[in-house]
């Protein structure tokens, strides 16, 4: 067995031991297919107020600029599908935000994987990324065979659907590389048909500036009145396009204790949310990604749904 094969097997086995759903590896290099897509997305202002997406254009498309001398992009999936969801008669938050902020949970896992690589393989340079740097996560995960990009622009797998986080290690180490898988969306348009704001403007193209997640998390100004009555009670994020996807009938419950929700979260009804205090907000969302919108932002979203 060559060193490349040996190291690849070691890394994949350790990723599995650390709780990652799957691990795929691609050769680091320029993403030719993604370049025109990213350019047209930005030219059409589909990023709305997310100006940060316009930064580091070259780095987004080429990890060898982001991490000098990089040879491999290791993509990893981490499950967050919950055992229980919120009650039906309430304002909803996206399932990914039920527990501890995934940035912290997965970054710790990636650090352990990096430490393992250093101990078992030697002096390997690289960086870990969890949705917080100019890396096209889904493109790399698709390239490394972990799934295909669905019509809702999210990564899909036949085995687990789409309720998982995507992260990467970009290393200056040559490894065995995986191949992409085929697309299995077929003629299904469930996600496109179900989106209440019409954010999925074409297959695999989501206008971020029309997405409920954008309005409830990223938008800092008032939500446009034209969107009244369209949010279907989503006050932080939105899971509609995932909930209706047939492949998500294969989603399996995560086994990450840190992703379990605060005990009060699942039982809060509309009046509980409408009367929420900053103290309760800090308690229920102590380490949650919901803190990103701040107490004032959540209040704005609830008021918008209520009026």
TrEMBL record:
EC number: 1.17.99.6
Binding-site residues for [4Fe-4S] cluster 2, renumbered to this chain: 195, 211, 238, 241
tRNA processing found in the keyword field: yes
Chief place where the protein resides: cytoplasm
Subcellular location: Cytoplasm
UniProt GO MF annotations: 4 iron, 4 sulfur cluster binding; cobalamin binding; epoxyqueuosine reductase activity; metal ion binding
Catalytic activity from the UniProt record: epoxyqueuosine(34) in tRNA + AH2 = queuosine(34) in tRNA + A + H2O
GO BP: any one term: tRNA queuosine(34) biosynthetic process
Enzyme class: oxidoreductase
Active site: 131 (proton donor)
Subunit description: Monomer.
Name of the molecule in the record: Epoxyqueuosine reductase
Organism: Aequorivita ciconiae
């Amino acid at each position: 067995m060559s060193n490349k094969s040996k190291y690849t097997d070691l890394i994949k086995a350790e990723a599995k031991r650390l709780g990652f759903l799957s691990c795929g590896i691609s050769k680091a290099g320029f993403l030719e297919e993604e370049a025109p897509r990213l350019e047209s997305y930005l030219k059409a202002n589909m990023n709305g107020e997310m100006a940060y997406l316009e930064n580091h254009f070259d780095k987004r498309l080429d990890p060898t600029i982001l991490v000098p001398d990089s040879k491999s992009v290791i993509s990893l999936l981490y499950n967050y599908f919950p055992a229980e969801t919120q009650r039906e008669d309430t304002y909803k938050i996206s399932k990914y935000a039920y527990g501890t902020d995934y940035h912290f949970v997965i970054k710790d896992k990636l650090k352990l994987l990096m430490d393992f690589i250093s101990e078992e393989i030697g002096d390997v340079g690289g960086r870990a990324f969890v949705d917080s740097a100019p890396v096209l996560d889904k493109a790399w995960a698709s390239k490394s065979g972990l799934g295909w990009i669905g019509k809702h622009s999210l990564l899909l797998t036949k085995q687990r659907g789409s309720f998982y986080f995507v992260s990467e290690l970009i290393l200056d180490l040559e490894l065995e590389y995986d191949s992409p898988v085929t697309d299995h969306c077929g003629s299904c348009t469930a996600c496109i048909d179900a989106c209440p704001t019409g954010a999925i403007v074409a297959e695999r193209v989501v206008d971020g500036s029309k997405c409920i997640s954008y309005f409830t998390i990223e938008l800092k100004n008032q939500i446009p009145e034209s969107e009244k009555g369209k949010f279907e009670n989503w006050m932080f994020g939105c899971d509609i396009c995932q909930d209706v996807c047939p492949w998500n009938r294969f989603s399996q419950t995560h086994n990450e204790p840190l992703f379990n929700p605060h005990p009060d979260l699942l039982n809060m009804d509309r009046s509980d949310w409408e009367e929420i205090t900053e103290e309760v907000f800090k308690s229920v969302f102590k380490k949650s990604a919901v803190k990103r919108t701040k107490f004032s932002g959540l209040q704005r979203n609830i008021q918008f749904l209520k009026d």
